[in-house]
TrEMBL record:
Any GO BP annotation: polyamine biosynthetic process
Composition bias type Low complexity, residue spans: 10-21
Organism: Podospora anserina (strain S / ATCC MYA-4624 / DSM 980 / FGSC 10383) (Pleurage anserina)
Keywords on record: Polyamine biosynthesis
Region: Disordered, residue numbers: 1-34
Name by which UniProt lists this protein: Podospora anserina S mat+ genomic DNA chromosome 4, supercontig 4
Length: 580
């Protein structure tokens, strides 16, 4: 029986043994899948595979970190610049009272609300930063005009709350958004991966603040861009370059105000506007510069006939009608040597030079020395050392063959708070090493006798120089002391190295007075400080102030500086402090 033949199936070869027919796929003409689309899909997949390389990954991650670092660096620098702009109006210590708390609040608010900001705003949050930055000088200018109402207690908080806080908040929100795209190693625990962006960002901010802020303070005043308002404008420009947008058109009014009306800008036009505004209170600013110790200016009162040098919210001194010289407790003969730490307006070195005494002046701020020469008749025939007194004195004292002095005058600027390194046991011991065996040292100290620091400083001085007498500039105002618990005054301590003797003063003669009525009135010391004038805090150790324990004075700085701010506002009109 012949075998049964199979029925050919579609696509199979016939029984004749011919070659099998090639299969043809059936394509639905209504389907989107076509040979052309298939080819395009393959090309797209190839391009995607090519782009997802290690180089692309590293580039993407680098951009994330670079943008974050740029924003953190800008806000870190702005932190320092903000403080610098408040110091002429409020002083450095009141300005810093709320500063760190505002920074922390802004960082927390920005980091926790970044998703909300991105969802609510119709544009990227970073586009707000240039606009906020350019209006900071404007807000500071107008709030500064009402600083007497805001007071040193609340003025800095309100000012930075309306200027620095929004910048910090938006910056933190942007950095949080950027770092969401950061690819952290998988081997790290999840809680570390969650916390690392925030902790790392804040750590980078603090490091940038220390480095960039230090550079800003070190080089301030060297050009217009290195001044307070100049740096604010430069930072606004940096934000604009980082996040350009059409919103920048709204920055024009702020730029025009700062360029034409802001008296804080260091230009000739701004100075002219400043003096025009000060005419009503009878003052004129002769010159001004920003330097490493603060905003330094020379202010003249033509009506009252006196001149002062200002540094931030304090005075370095006034003309000879209002400044007393160091009292004479030895023979002021020529040929002797004097070492002066702290120049001020130069009244004391000028008197010593006039007596023919070879005088060395150590002053950290070159602008103070420049203004003393130009506006306060400081004689040029003295030795000027423009250097930090701590460093210079330590180096000179260590040199056993170095110069030693018959007189030392330690008269440093305090501004409402002690420059602590200049009143430590170690520094005073170096001054002791520079003083000849029969020499005399005069130490000026300005502080609030209603607080413990004057007692601590006095104890330290007497530990090094056992033979001392102290005198106040004026007696205690009991009414003010009772009402406000404030007793801010200058004190001068006269000391010798002779432990067996007593500090005595001879009455000045006509040669000592140098034909000066003020010297006749003030040269001989008055108002001797008694033990009961000092206040001791409960639980405060007597002891001395050492370089490794300066927190004993730091904790009292805020109270002292607030009292000093109030006193300065009675010495010169508010407009002088506010308009700069």
């Amino acid at each position: 029986m012949a075998p049964k033949q199979r029925k050919p199936t579609p696509g199979s070869s016939s029984a004749s043994g011919s070659a099998p027919a090639k299969a043809i796929p059936h394509i639905d003409p209504n389907s989107s899948f076509t040979p052309e689309s298939f080819k395009k899909e393959l090309e797209s997949l190839a391009q995607k595979a090519q782009s997802e390389t290690t180089l692309h990954y590293l580039t993407e991650q680098s951009i994330i970190y670079l943008k974050s670092a740029a924003l953190l660096s800008l806000i870190a620098l702005y932190s320092t610049v903000s403080q610098l702009n408040l110091s002429p109006t409020y002083g450095s210590i009141p300005s810093s009272k709320w500063h760190s708390k505002l920074i922390m609040a802004g960082c927390f608010a920005g980091w926790s609300t970044n998703l909300t900001l991105n969802r609510v705003l119709p544009f990227k949050p970073e586009k707000l930063l240039p606009l906020l930055a350019v209006y900071v000088p404007v807000v500071q200018f107008f709030l500064g005009k009402v600083s007497s109402t805001l007071t040193a207690q609340w003025g800095p908080l309100i000012t930075e709350g309306l200027t620095l806080l929004p910048l910090v908040t938006i910056s933190a929100a942007c950095v949080a958004t950027y770092l969401e795209g950061a690819d952290l190693p998988d081997f790290l625990p999840s809680w570390i991966r969650d916390a690392l962006p925030g902790l790392g960002g804040y750590g980078f901010y603090k490091l940038s603040e220390q480095i960039l802020g230090g550079l800003a303070e070190e080089h301030i005043g060297q050009s217009v861009l290195n001044t307070r308002v100049g740096m604010e404008l430069a930072l606004a420009g940096s934000y604009a370059a980082l996040a350009p947008s059409k919103l920048l058109v709204f920055a024009l009014p702020a730029l025009l105000h700062t360029a034409l009306l802001n008296t804080h800008l260091p230009t000739g036009n701004a100075l002219a506007n400043l003096n025009k505004g000060l005419e009503s209170v009878g003052y004129v600013v002769l010159d001004r510069k920003e330097s490493l110790t603060g905003y330094v200016s020379v202010v003249d009162s033509p009506k009252e006939g006196y001149r002062v040098m200002r540094c931030d919210h304090s005075l370095l001194g006034g003309d000879s009608r209002h400044v007393s010289d160091v009292a004479v407790c030895g023979s002021m003969d020529g040929g002797k040597l004097t070492f002066i730490s702290g120049l001020g307006i130069g009244t004391t070195p000028a008197a010593l030079v006039a007596h023919g005494i070879d005088t060395t002046v150590v002053e950290i701020d070159p602008v103070v020395h420049e203004f003393a020469l130009e506006y306060f008749q400081l004689p040029k025939n003295h030795t000027a050392v423009i250097e930090d007194a701590v460093t210079y004195t330590s180096r000179l004292a260590a040199d056993e063959k170095g110069q030693r002095f018959d007189y030392i005058v330690h008269d440093v600027f305090t501004g409402g708070a002690e420059p602590i390194p200049l009143f430590t046991l170690e520094f005073l011991q170096n001054l002791n090493a520079l003083l000849k065996p029969n020499g005399v040292i005069a130490i000026n100290y300005a502080g609030d006798f209603a607080l413990p620091p004057p007692r601590i400083v006095t104890n330290t001085i007497r530990f090094v120089f056992p033979a001392c007498r102290a005198f106040r500039e004026h007696p205690r105002d009991m009414e003010d002391f009772t009402k406000n618990q404030r007793d801010f005054t200058n004190m001068v301590m006269f000391c010798t190295k002779d432990t067996s003797g007593e500090v005595k003063f001879r009455h000045p003669n006509n040669r000592d007075l140098l034909n000066s009525p003020s010297r006749q009135a003030f040269l001989y010391p008055q108002h001797e400080v008694k033990e009961e004038d000092f206040v001791k805090a409960e639980g405060e150790a007597e002891g001395v102030l050492r370089a490794n324990a300066t927190e004993r004075l730091v904790k009292w700085h805020e109270s002292s500086a607030m009292g000093h701010w109030g006193i300065m506002r009675t010495v010169l009109p508010d407009a002088v402090w506010e308009e700069w």
